[in-house]
């Protein structure tokens, strides 16, 4: 008889059925908890205690519900004098899954929220739980011996698959801890006063980078990997930088240049090419610029170092706007200039110091060209919108006082008529 069929005794089939039921009920509980928590935390702040506790309970819905069904099923089997050894193993597996998911979730609170972080949370949690599950089932030691037999020799010292696996797990844990500590330090630095925003970002990025490199070296050292084994990899990386990765390296170096020379800082209003907006973030490879349409553009750091960039708020946030207007020669330019200045003084965003002024610039073909010059100190709130408001206000003031804005026109004078004698004789 098939050994598998022999193993499927009625008692074990009952246990497998209870396990399937427990997993299905746990999945349904997780779906329901996810919907309820999403509704309860829709307007809650990201770092509020209520949101953290509710999101943590969401992680426990699946393992605890499945554990409750498993314990109930095992108690029923024991009452019916049936075996329950498989269900006995499921209890520590589900408890360890609940503890690991909750621990990893609380560790991620020190990192920047986002969909990528949630994916990494699931990967790390499942990886740790897989190791714990293998240990509880008694399969970890045989698997370790099997991986230890496979050896690789990239350098003078052999490296086994078990060593690589341990290195990956340990480096992952050290990397997570250093990233968590680095993010906590970054938040403290960004909240510190008395330091410019650009300098705070630069210090925070350097500290995080140094801590990550230090954590990587510590992880390799704890595993016992000889760093000389990575000389081939280092050479390949150098060749790659020389052949195809020089743009990436250039963006990284340019990012540190921007951080330390403080030419561009978070909150600055810049124009590069046809892009206009204010700087949201300074990243290692690019900066994030948000325009008035709500569109965020990622501009490589190399472009900012090698191209001409207009920084509207580099040393002073005050920006002067120029609004040209043309009036007819039949109108009084002094009245028009006075009206333009009055319109500027009544606008809430126009500064009183320096005071707005209007100038008569030239006498053009179609009329007299005037220009209103006014200062604002919040260019991040928009420039074209205030130009539009000023133009509308000037048009209304001119209309009330009878000042006309001419349209292009041409006058053709005929100095004589051609001789049509020959045509009349025909």
Automatic annotation (TrEMBL):
Which Gene Ontology terms cover its molecular function? mechanosensitive monoatomic ion channel activity
**Domain called Mechanosensitive ion channel MscS: residue spans:** 248-313
Q: Which UniProt keywords apply?
A: Cell membrane, Membrane, Transmembrane, Transmembrane helix
Instruction: List all membrane-crossing ranges.
Output: 12-29, 60-80, 86-107, 119-139, 159-181, 209-233
Which Gene Ontology cellular component annotation is one that this UniProt entry carries? plasma membrane
The record places domain Mechanosensitive ion channel MscS C-terminal at 322-405
Membrane topology per the entry is: Multi-pass membrane protein
Q: Where is this protein localized, as stated in its record?
A: Cell membrane
Q: Where is the Mechanosensitive ion channel transmembrane helices 2/3 domain?
A: 205-246
Which family is it part of?
A: Belongs to the MscS (TC 1.A.23) family.
Give the protein name, as stated in the record.
Answer: Mechanosensitive ion channel protein MscS
Q: Which organism is it from?
A: Acidihalobacter aeolianus
